[in-house]
Design brief:
Blueprint lengths: L1 H25 L30 H5 L12 H11 L5 E8 L5 E7 L2 H5 L1 H13 L5 H10 L2 E7 L7 H15 L3 H9 E7 L2 H12 L33 H14 L3 E6 L8 E10 L5 H20 L5 E4 L5 E2 L5 H6 L4 E7 L6 E3 L3 H4 L12 E4 L1 H21 L1 H18 L9 H13 L26 H8 L9 E4 L6 H13 L5 E3 L3 E3 L2 E3 L4 E4 L5 H8 L26 H4 L5 E3 L7 E3 L19 E4 L5 H11 L5 E3 L11 E5 L2 H14 L3 E4 L7 E2 L1 E2 L2 E4 L6 H12 L5 E3 L1 H6 L8 E4 L16 H4 L9 H4 L10 H10 L3 E5 L4 H5 L4 E3 L20 E7 L12 E6 L5 E3 L8 E6 L6 E3 L12 E8 L2 E6 L14 H4 L3 E2 L5
Parallel strand pairs: 3-4, 3-5, 5-9, 6-7, 6-8, 25-26, 25-27, 27-28, 28-36
Antiparallel strand pairs: 1-2, 2-4, 6-9, 10-11, 12-16, 12-17, 13-16, 13-18, 14-15, 19-21, 19-22, 20-21, 20-23, 24-37, 29-32, 30-31, 30-33, 30-34, 33-35, 35-36
Length: 953
């Protein structure tokens, strides 16, 4: 029940605020039906458009979109959508339910004639995007016949309120206007207006509008604006864990395949109005060149229109932090599917703001050709008008270049198919560095061997001294070719997790094949039911990106200077994160394969539950086994762990369940979709240890912790019960009476000596208790050395367990354990500077001691998600004091995917350990072992801590 209440809190908050906001809106006198002309005190006018056939926003909401101090909620917005749907220019589509059970809508807008023929135009878009079996001439014919498809979304990050508001206004104008430009757009373009976060809009708008005094209104909500993951709802688009990501991905990658997608966001860089395309380097090396030039072209159309309309303040390229390297965002994942993905980040709020004085932004340059002047008042409506202009610039481009954008998505797909059908080498910094190094290694001189070190681009010499043989040695090396495909064998240890990985590909529109019988490729035998993913398909960039390492360049502000932080992660290879076993096949291959229909979700094969034996065995290597164990424990069935494995399973921590009717019933039910193989046991293993469910507490705070929200989602997916623990609960003490184990995700425990301001930003603006509704006052506060740490020490000493992840590993230092920071300069003993060591969001390879109960079921080595994470050096007497390493880096080159500057400093560093503290245990993991619900390969490092063993008493 506690878990239920905690997970439903955002929904309950929305319901309460909806009543408050509805009462406030009920006091608003409905606007008379008259021509829409709004004039504010500063003389700003909203344009009037002829031929009005649907109600204006003011006629529906009682205010204009963009009026200061006004926000519409999702309930009101959906009611307006349904009124707009009466227009023959529209079709309202319900694309699925959200995490809180609301309907998520997409409004399709085009000319009435196009609306009548949507099925035909969708079919053309699908054929061109997949590029299967089409000749260039056939593609040109389809492009001439088809209509450009443009995606416009809004509201993904719900506190960025411009996004949802501009969606309403643009939709209204496109449906209502009859000027020549609008008519040309309607005739040539099909627009997909998609609301990206209905739950968040309802929550944020109700919270903002709850105060009768407009000056008190704010968007600083007490919980996450997506039920589980808040801002990370824009990091879920290659995994699609959430319902909203799944809904939109279906429209993008299985249904409509828009050639252009535009993702609206906030917040623009200080001193500018917005940041937009084109973006800074690096871009991802798997892209077709047409992706980058397409972004350039759309970017030019966008800022040129703003300049024509005297709307300054657009910054691009190095003027902002955004790049096209990362996969996983709503905008960025489309780029790996050959769709021109656009992002803008604009300023604006219903509470008027200002454009501050930033002298460096005032001088025109290539990044900001038309700077905006500082001003004390910036109205919400100004941001809406900018956004509408930007949308129309995209519409206009698509209308004028209709056949080109249609043909280009085909051309990118065809190029991908061609590259995947022959020997091909993707060029990246690692490859070009290898060419240079090979040449230098052959030179007798120890000086500037290449003769062009000071002229790397060949501007002075117009050539190079490096012979072609060095190029050929790398970029014609058969062993360095891109794979023709990947094989995922059905006999791998955790096949159900491999199928989850495949389903992420399938939901993203990737073509997957399945073996109908056993087969052999290059001397390796594979069983029937194995899966094959080939690279000769249109979305090859996405396939490569999910299987292959990312090779992020060394990116510094200047030679010898500080590193430039990537927009998000530097490396994320999903197959590595999930611990999926696969074989890369460099040559063309075939077999008894059948192509799975696009979008058809796979389920693990149904396992037969043994009817004989005294008990059952479940492999601890299979993540889903933990879900089954939890179901058994909740049903009152005894469950045991076998430290050294059993039944021929070469693993640690095998689950053993005594046979019985109750156990059989749970196992029969659990088999539906989980795919856990159940083995018969003739007798109970002698070293079996009975386990119990523990009372789990999960730290969270006011405003909501995103990593904590991800963990809530993960716990529910794997059938663990939990309760939320706020800082005030910890400070109150008596923790052992409520919890057996408490989990602190990253950014919960402050460092010794104080919290850096960059990590305490939200706490600095946390509201005062007297300004917070009573229902949310219990969430206020933070973990402090003075009040919280003593209570945590007492909890441990009395037999409790604590799990810390990421920066919350600081707890080990607060407790004075015999461990120290391994990443310090040997001479100064200070943390290594970024010029010597820097590893942002990457995948590293680590060794595991799977004999430790904390790591039961783990392999001997594992890929971990590492983001400048803590690494430890154990004191010489650490073992005697009860500290045992679990996870460490055995080599000086642990990088698997991403960027690891100075990675040699990691050698022999400990990434995870367990420490005895009184009668309790502290489990410390530096890497992000539950990262965004993606790092399945390390989930067991958390799951194992949620069961009680006899020795723990």
């Amino acid at each position: 029940m506690k878990a239920f209440l905690n997970t439903r809190l955002p929904w309950m908050l929305s319901a309460v605020l909806l009543v408050t906001a509805s009462l406030a809106n009920a006091q608003t006198t409905p606007a008379p039906k008259k021509p829409l002309v709004t004039k504010t005190t500063d003389g700003y006018k909203q344009p009037k458009y002829p031929g009005q056939s649907v109600p204006s926003p003011k006629e529906h909401f009682g205010f204009n979109i963009g009026d200061d101090y006004k926000l519409a909620n999702y309930t009101q917005t959906v009611a307006y959508y349904k009124k707009l749907a009466a227009s023959p220019r529209t079709k309202l589509v319900d694309i699925g339910l959200t995490e809180e059970g609301r309907h998520e809508y997409m409004m399709v807008v085009s000319s009435p004639e196009n609306i009548k023929n949507l099925a035909m135009y969708k079919d053309i878009a699908q054929k061109l995007a997949r590029a299967e079996g089409l000749t260039n001439q056939q593609a040109l014919t389809l492009a001439a016949k088809g209509k450009a498809v443009v995606w416009i979304d809004g509201g993904l990050h719900a506190t960025e309120v411009v996004g949802a508001a501009q969606l309403i206004e643009t939709m209204y104008q496109l449906i209502n206007r009859k000027d020549p430009e609008n008519m040309r757009i309607l005739d040539n373009v099909i627009v997909l207006f998609t609301h990206a976060n209905p739950d968040g809009m309802e929550l944020v708008s109700n919270w903002y509008m709850k105060d009768a005094d407009p000056l008190k209104r704010n968007t600083e909500i007490p919980t996450l604006y997506e039920k589980y993951i808040g801002h990370d709802n824009n990091r879920d688009y290659y995994m699609m864990n959430t319902k909203e990501a799944t809904n939109m991905s279906k429209q993008l990658f299985l249904e409509w395949f828009p050639q252009i997608m535009y993702n609206h966001h906030q917040r623009g860089p200080e001193g500018s109005v917005l940041a937009g395309p084109p973006y800074r380097d690096p871009f991802n090396y798997v892209f077709d060149p047409l992706m980058i030039t397409g972004i350039d072209a759309l970017g030019a159309a966008m800022y040129s229109r703003l300049n024509v309309e005297n709307k300054p303040g657009y910054t691009r390229l190095t003027g902002s932090s955004f790049s096209t390297w990362y996969n996983g965002g709503l905008r960025t994942t489309t780029q790996f599917h050959n769709m021109i993905g656009l992002l803008t980040e604009i300023i604006g709020n219903p509470t008027p703001e200002k454009i501050p004085v930033v002298p460096a932004r005032l001088v025109p340059n290539g990044a900001t050709p038309n700077p905006v002047l500082p001003q004390d008042v910036w109205h919400f409506r100004q941001s809406i008008d900018y956004s509408v202009s930007l949308n129309y610039s995209v519409f206009d481009y698509a209308a004028r270049q209709r056949d080109e954008v249609l043909y280009n998505i085909y051309k990118m797909g065809k190029n991908s198919i061609d590259r995947g059908s022959k020997d091909y080498w993707t060029i990246s910094p690692k490859r070009t560095d290898a060419i240079t190094q090979a040449y230098k290694n052959d030179q007798k001189s120890t000086g500037d061997n290449a003769g062009s070190a000071g002229d790397p681009m060949g501007w002075m010499t117009r050539g190079s001294d490096i012979p072609m043989k060095y190029y050929d040695a790398v970029l014609k090396n058969p062993l360095l070719r891109d794979p023709r495909g990947y094989i995922l064998s059905a006999d791998q240890p955790d096949f159900p997790t491999a199928i989850k990985f495949l389903n992420a590909l399938i939901k993203s529109g990737i073509s997957v094949q399945k073996a109908t019988s056993s087969f052999s490729v290059e001397g390796i035998n594979y069983p029937a039911g194995s899966y094959i993913v080939k690279t000769d398909q249109a979305f090859r960039p996405h396939v490569l990106d999910m299987f292959e390492p990312q090779d992020h360049p060394n990116d510094f502000l200047y030679p010898g200077g500080p590193p430039i932080r990537p927009y998000d992660a530097a490396g994320w290879t999903l197959a590595f994160q999930m611990g999926v076993k696969f074989d890369r096949v460099l040559n063309n291959f075939g077999g008894p394969f059948v192509k799975i229909p696009y979008g058809q979700i796979q389920v693990p094969p149904k396992e037969v539950i043994p009817s004989s034996g005294k008990g059952y065995l479940l492999s601890a290597q299979v993540n889903n086994s933990f879900s089954v164990a939890n179901d058994l424990l909740k049903a009152g069935v005894e469950v045991y762990r076998v430290p050294k494995g059993a039944g021929g399973l070469s693993e640690t921590g095998t689950f053993y369940i005594p046979a019985g009717a109750a156990a059989k019933a749970v196992l029969d039910k659990a088999d539906a979709g989980l795919g856990v193989k159940v083995l018969a046991a003739d007798e109970m293993p002698k070293d079996a240890k009975k386990i119990t469910s523990l009372r789990i507490g999960l730290w969270d705070q006011y405003g909501g912790s995103i990593p904590s929200g991800w963990l809530r989602w993960l716990m529910e997916q794997n059938h663990f019960d939990y309760s939320i623990v706020y800082p005030q609960d910890i400070d109150a003490g008596n923790l052992n009476s409520k919890y057996d184990v408490i989990v602190f995700v990253t950014r919960a425990i402050p460092p010794v000596g104080g919290e850096p301001r960059s990590n305490s930003m939200f706490y600095d603006r946390m509201p005062k208790a007297e300004d917070t509704p009573v229902a949310f006052q219990k969430m206020l506060g933070k973990i402090t050395p003075e009040k919280s740490i003593p209570q945590l020490r007492s909890f441990l000493e009395a037999g409790g367990s604590i799990v810390t992840i990421g920066s919350s590993s600081n707890l080990a230092y607060h407790l004075g354990l015999p461990v120290h920071n391994a990443l310090v300069d040997k001479e100064s003993n200070k943390p290594l500077p970024g010029t010597k060591y820097y590893i942002p969001g990457s995948i590293l390879h680590a060794s595991v001691d799977s004999t430790v109960p904390a790591a039961w079921g783990m392999p001997a080595d594992v890929d971990v998600n590492f983001d400048n994470s803590p690494v430890f050096k154990l004191d010489d007497d650490a073992s005697k004091k009860g500290v045992q390493p679990i996870l460490w880096f055995p080599t000086d080159k642990p990088l698997r995917s991403g960027w690891a500057w100075g990675q040699s400093y990691l050698k022999d560093g400990v990434a995870g350990f367990v420490a005895q503290v009184g009668a309790g245990k502290l489990y410390t993991f530096g890497p992000e072992i539950t990262f965004r619900g993606q790092s399945h390969g390390t989930f067991k490092l958390l799951f194992n801590q949620f069961y009680g063993l006899p020795a723990d008493k």
